[in-house]
Amino acid sequence: MSERDDVLHSWFVQADWNAPTVVGGEGAWLHLEGGRRVLDMSSLAECSNLGHQHPRLVEAIRDQASELCFVTNAWGAKPRADLARRLLELSGFEGGRVFFTNGGADANEHAVKIARMAAGKPEGKIIARDRSYHGATRLAQALSGDSRTQAESNAAALGISHVPPPYAYRCPFGSGSDAHCGELAAAAVAERIDEFGAGQVAAVIMEPNAGTNGIVAPDSYWPALRRATAERDVWLIADEVMSGFGRCGEWFAWQRQGESARPDLMTLAKGLTGAAAPLGAVVLSSDVAGEIEHQMLYTGLTYCGHPLSCAAGLAALAAYEAEGLIDRSRNMGTELLTELQEMQSRHPVIGDVRGGHGLFAVIELVADAATREPIAP
Ligand SMILES: Cc1ncc(COP(=O)(O)O)c(C=O)c1O
Q1: Residues in contact with 87: Cβ distance below 8 Å, sequence separation at least 6, in sequence order
Q2: Which domains, from first to last, does the chain contain?
Q3: Given this model, what pLDDT does residue 377 score?
Q4: What is the pTM of this model?
Q5: How many A from CA of 54 to the centre of ligand 1?
């Protein structure tokens, strides 16, 4: 018997899974059983932002394990407190609070729960968008506008409503201008809130830069979304699970548009620990934290702020800073974009190149560059 027979593997027809076993890694390389090395072009699930076996991460986990492996968050724990403080400082969410989770999906579940609680709308609607991914638990799946998860979910029953995305290359609003398409997509959110009535809507959740679905919103989108939600007293949640920690050339992708783009809540995972240990987080602004300060928090996870994971998180933040990796990603992203555009000029199969704010870019393949016919249905 082998792993192939005994383990259920995500996003696979089980009978088709036949991957080799990874026994080690270093930097961008994975080491396979039998001695082969594989270049990890995607940092696994876009999560190993610091490469494999980063010495700072390994050491931090080892040191923490020798002191205290675990304590629930009914008790205090130093790495948890230190990580929350660093996250609030780094993101400029001073006066806010951090709720730690095990990963991205449960961070989004909790962001929705906390947003509804802070809005005083326990049944409040949540607006999300098509071509998005927020995770694979029941609610996160329903938030996602992704072909892999939609069929399984019942968004409306969970109070979730989807709007079209700011997908400028194939603008769902028919605009030929990127900036205009972004504005129309933000206006569609405003319209949806108004249809329900702002008093019925608790929050809007969006990825500032969608990874899995390849949407890089035009610069006009996020600031307009921020204005529309603020004017209507609806919380804005930025899902930074994939786009955070340097991937888009800033600590968090919304920061590209400056202070006026600041969301009310932000969800994190993946690069938070460079994936060396499982950890997610919901970062609350001081306004959101203030609303729930004297309410009972009816939620919890056994491993909330696990000390080993928080120690890894602290080491990851220190590594991003000490090695100048956020700036490096921003600078190399410009080079990457130039190279991809050059490739596009030589290969008609590349219909669009976008992103490159950091080492996160999209090439969209087409059957026909003139008609933009997708290469896959
Ligand atoms: C934007 C975004 N949100 C949430 C998730 C879910 O995170 P997790 O797989 O840790 O539950 C992902 C995972 O790819 C993601 O890309």
Answers
A1: 93, 98, 268, 281, 283, 317
A2: 1-41 (no CATH), 58-322 (3.40.640.10), 325-377 (3.90.1150.10)
A3: 76
A4: 0.97
A5: 22
